[in-house]
């Protein structure tokens, strides 16, 4: 009996810092790209060619992979630009190119024949017939449509056992079919499938009835408690089903959405799914543990989407009364890459206690000195601040979010360690309460790979 191949954990890399965080928090591979022809133009602007090359080298030095996104759809006038961009990205040595259209598949194979081609979820592959076409063109992996079922994945794999299948397991969900939406283009001129979606589906909408003969317009009031966020999909969260997905034996990669989301999201979500995968193979799968961590992040409510249940069987995939809500925790600070200092993400004062969230496999030294105290309680680590001193020697009573001073730690911590506190304490520092949430805001993310 051959040993089961372990599934890959693939995390988003919106910029160099988030790429490094995802890799340190357990990702086997990351995906991202520069803004050119990527379906994440905003996040891609944080990656220039030099930074992206540094990220690829960083990943490869740790035995990890980087998949480059070139997954928007070209106009005729852009074909030559696509050719030039593919050639430039290929020179950086990524482990695969993620593309969306048959024409770009063919182009990539001609320009970079030695780099594997992954087909974007935007291509909407749902069955073995379509999968066969792309496989015959040279595609080595298909990121299947969001609406596909696990049974359909099994059917594809039975026909094409050497074709890799990748599925999304966590992150934003688009209300449109496979992310193919035109609302943003119609309302704001920002084309979703060109990477510049304005997230129009996340806004509340009012409904009116108009009589053209009389010119009379009536506003239709929605039933109380139903809400007006009529196109706002809940976030996907498949952590509790990782065991079913892995037991099927047909999925090669589990993908987390979120290149435009925060470093905290990149670290905590990646670590939660790393634990779920590793625990499954170790025979100690515990969904409550993973959900507790995932619930610390901001979200629109969670749904297990369509991989296990068909779309028509679901009635809980929309969040009608808010756009996004606080999670159970708020990030207070992020430790520097060298582990010697931290920068504030949420108001922090002398005497404050924060939880230490470590990268995967990292350890921490317990100390108690003039700068602070690091202790362990119930399997978790905590840091209490006694002094707030910057590397330049400036002392503070409190540090506020956005302050760029690098503050000394009482002891060196693993690079990119996260410091966090409970949401109630975080809101209290802002003069708010948990009754102030859920928050009605529009986040800077949308759904595609």
UniProtKB/TrEMBL annotation:
Keywords: Hydrolase, Protease. It holds the Pfam family Peptidase_U32. The keyword Transmembrane helix does not apply. It comes from the Bacteria. Belongs to the peptidase U32 family. This is U32 family peptidase.
